[in-house]
Known about the structure:
The chain is an alpha/beta fold and 291 residues long. The chain is built from nine helices and ten strands. The structure holds adenosine-5'-triphosphate and magnesium ion.
Amino acid sequence: MKPLLELSSVGMHFETPGGIFDxxxxxxxxxxxxxxxxxxxxxxxxxxxxxxxxxxxxxATRGGAILAGREVTAPGPxxxxxxxxxxxxxxxxxxxNVALAVQEVFRRRMNRAEMRDWIAHNLELVQMLHARxxxxxxxxxxxxxxxxxxxxxxxxxxxxxxxxxxxxxDALTRARLQDTLMQIQTAQGNTVIMIxxxxxxxxxxxxxxxxxxxxxxxxxxxxxxxxxxxxRDRLMLADNxxxxxxxxxxxxxxxxxxxxxxxxxxxxxxxxxxxxxSSPASPPKxxxxxx
Length: 291
Ligand SMILES: Nc1ncnc2c1ncn2[C@@H]1O[C@H](COP(=O)(O)OP(=O)(O)OP(=O)(O)O)[C@@H](O)[C@H]1O
Ligand SMILES: [Mg+2]
């Protein structure tokens, strides 16, 4: 099968005042239509850079991304992005931020009433309909993030690019939105690339987990297929031996790459490997400067 998206020999360097910074080297990845792929790796390794290249917001300095047979050179409405730092238009209300995207995509296919219902439906999915008239400056970070998710879902994109979409949310909201995302992705067959720091989230949602090495010159260290049947139920999986083996594999990769790891770090990783799946298992975040 021909992949929907192909990254071949992607390299990225940035020109900085201190000289050239080599962020990514030789990133190769093929993603099939309808696949859910997570990118995981330590802070500063280059995950957002990879996502931005697929989004068409950054041009790789070597190699490139091919989407449905065409080279990616610019953003497009078939690729919706949920940004790491929520990026709503500050002068528009919550409603209008979603409406703008819906109009761009569905102008010719929906009448005004249908668009209104669709915007309301997507704001309801993220429990933000009550704040429809507020501006981004009047809502919290987590609320802005939820509006960004509603905006992306409302575009029914062929490819959904999500940069730590649930990072700023409390555990319950996060779990609810993860379940919503799984249902929507199953129903619509979107291809998803999601960056996360949360190992449980990655295993629960993904078909494959792409684990990146630390930068500079970061690349793909290992790709783990997640062959758990769907639909997936987080409570059932907590006691599933195979699920726990998969999360061990990811945790082990991250801890092996943690070059700050001292005795305490090793002890922490062993504890993390032994705790049940329901406990928080996010790897420690390293500062971007250390990567
Ligand atoms: N515009 C830029 N100019 C210079 N360096 C950059 C630029 N953008 C990113 N970098 C560097 O490239 C590396 C990768 O950055 P990137 O934002 O992709 O990391 P990340 O894996 O998404 O990290 P995090 O998990 O903290 O979001 C970092 O070292 C970062 O400092
Ligand atoms: Mg990032």
